[in-house]
Design goal:
- The chain is about 30% helix and about 25% strand.
- By secondary structure, it is of the alpha+beta class.
- It folds into two domains: about 140 residues, no CATH class; about 45 residues, no CATH class.
- The strands form three sheets. Strands 3, 4, 5 and 6 form a four-stranded antiparallel β-sheet that branches.
- Strand 1 and strand 2 form a beta hairpin.
- The longest helix is centred in the middle third of the chain and has 18 residues.
- The protein is elongated and about 75 Å long.
Length: about 210
C-alpha cells in the first residue's frame, strides 16, 4: 500500500482502524505488539525500534522501586522513547529479589481482620521480555498507530473513501463479476461507502483475488 505523507506521519497513523486487532485480558484492552509492528512496517517500511540497555549491556534498569525497561521507535526520522515497569499478573512491580507486602487475610472467603504477608517473586527473563514488548506497543502508539486504545475509545477518527475510490471499487466489482455484498461482508461492513480510506487498497486486492 502506497501512502503519501507530508512529513507528519502521526496525522495519518492516528486514523488507522486497528479495532479488529484489539484483545482483552483481565478487563484491559490492548493491541498485540506484533500486529502494531506489522501494520507500521507496511505503511512505513523504514521504521525501526531499539531496546535501550544499561551500562552493563542488560535490557533493563533496576532501582529500589522495581525494574523497568526502555524502548525507542523511529518513524520517518522521528524517534520517541518510552519506559515501562516490569510487573507480575497482579500488577505488582518486580525486582531482582523477592519482597513481601501486606494483604488482608481471608478464610473461606471471609475476612479475618488480620493482615498477612504476600510474596512477590523476583523478575525472570520472561517477565522482562514481556515488558519490552508491551513498551514497544505503547511506543508505537505514541506515533499514532492504535493510540486511541489507551484512551479507552471504541474507535479512532477515520477517513472514509472518497467518491473516486467508491466508483473504482464498484466498477471493479462489476468487471470482475463480484457481488458488492460479498465484498462488504468480507470486511464486516454493510455498504461500500463505509470503507475506510486506509483499507481501500485491501478492498481492491480482495476483489482481484476473488474474481469469478
Amino acid at each position: 500500500m502506497e501512502v503519501k505523507h507530508t512529513g507528519d506521519h502521526f496525522k495519518h497513523l492516528i486514523t488507522i482502524d486497528m479495532s479488529k486487532k484489539v484483545k482483552v485480558l483481565q478487563r484491559q484492552r490492548f493491541i498485540p505488539w506484533v500486529d502494531q509492528w506489522a501494520e507500521l512496517k507496511k505503511i512505513h517500511p523504514s521504521s525501526s525500534y531499539k531496546v535501550i540497555e544499561d551500562e552493563n549491556g542488560l535490557p533493563y534498569f533496576s532501582s529500589s522501586l522495581g525494574i523497568f525497561v526502555k524502548v525507542e521507535v523511529t518513524v520517518e526520522g522521528e524517534t520517541i522513547k518510552e519506559i515501562y515497569p516490569v510487573m507480575n499478573g497482579a500488577n505488582k512491580a518486580l525486582k531482582e529479589i523477592a519482597y513481601t507486602y501486606k494483604v488482608k487475610e481471608y478464610i473461606n472467603k471471609q475476612p479475618t481482620g488480620k493482615m498477612i504477608d504476600k510474596t512477590v517473586e523476583p523478575a525472570t527473563s520472561f517477565d522482562i521480555n514481556t515488558a519490552i514488548k508491551r513498551c514497544l506497543a505503547k511506543c508505537i502508539g505514541l506515533h499514532g498507530l492504535g493510540l486511541y486504545i489507551y484512551q479507552d475509545e471504541a474507535m479512532p477518527e477515520v477517513e472514509l473513501i472518497n467518491s473516486s475510490q467508491l466508483h473504482e471499487i464498484t466498477n471493479l466489482c462489476a468487471s470482475k463479476n463480484i457481488n458488492v455484498s460479498d465484498l462488504t461482508k468480507a470486511f464486516s461492513i454493510t455498504k461500500v461507502t463505509e470503507f475506510y480510506a486506509s483499507t481501500f487498497d485491501n478492498a481492491i486486492e480482495w476483489v482481484n483475488s476473488n474474481s469469478k
